[in-house]
């Protein structure tokens, strides 16, 4: 079941921590070289965190963070390894897109890595298109940025 949760809830933090460990291993990175992130920023106006809950466990999550009145950024998309291949990432992404439309955002943006084939396929399959790297991602050689125009719905 797709639910909204506070981004500082312990199960959400555990998912985000697992995502960061996996990305550091994938990119042979250190904690000091990864994007600084405080989950509390997702609690701000215009933000939401959605998660797939199955029993007491969270299997996937993703969030929207307001960048400006017309733009929200997708953050912390993650599915636990044992639940991959079940379409949960797509479920979260559709939920975030619908939520963004309902909030009146004109577009969603995101940054991901060039070694994340499943994520790239998910975003491109959902209609996201490449854009120049923005914000933190400017000059980060293995980062790819995407955007999706939203129509009021």
TrEMBL record:
Keywords: Acyltransferase, Transferase. It comes from the Bacteria. Residues 11-151 form the N-acetyltransferase domain. PROSITE patterns: GNAT. CDD domains: NAT_SF. GO terms for molecular function: acyltransferase activity, transferring groups other than amino-acyl groups. This is Putative acyltransferase. SUPFAM superfamilies: Acyl-CoA N-acyltransferases (Nat) (SSF55729).
């Amino acid at each position: 079941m797709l639910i909204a949760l506070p981004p500082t809830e312990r199960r959400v933090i555990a998912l985000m921590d697992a995502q960061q460990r996996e990305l550091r291993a994938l990119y042979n990175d250190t904690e000091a070289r990864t994007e600084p992130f405080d989950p509390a920023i997702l609690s701000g106006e215009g933000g939401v965190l959605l998660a797939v809950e199955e029993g007491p466990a969270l299997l996937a999550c993703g969030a929207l963070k307001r960048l400006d009145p017309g733009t929200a950024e997708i953050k912390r998309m993650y599915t636990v390894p044992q639940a991959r291949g079940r379409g949960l990432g797509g479920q979260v992404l559709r939920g975030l897109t619908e939520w963004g439309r309902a909030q009146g955002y004109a577009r969603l943006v995101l940054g991901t890595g060039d070694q994340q084939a499943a994520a790239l396929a998910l975003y491109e399959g959902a209609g996201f298109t490449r854009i120049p790297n923005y914000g933190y991602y400017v000059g980060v050689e293995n980062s790819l940025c995407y955007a999706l125009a939203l129509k009021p719905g």
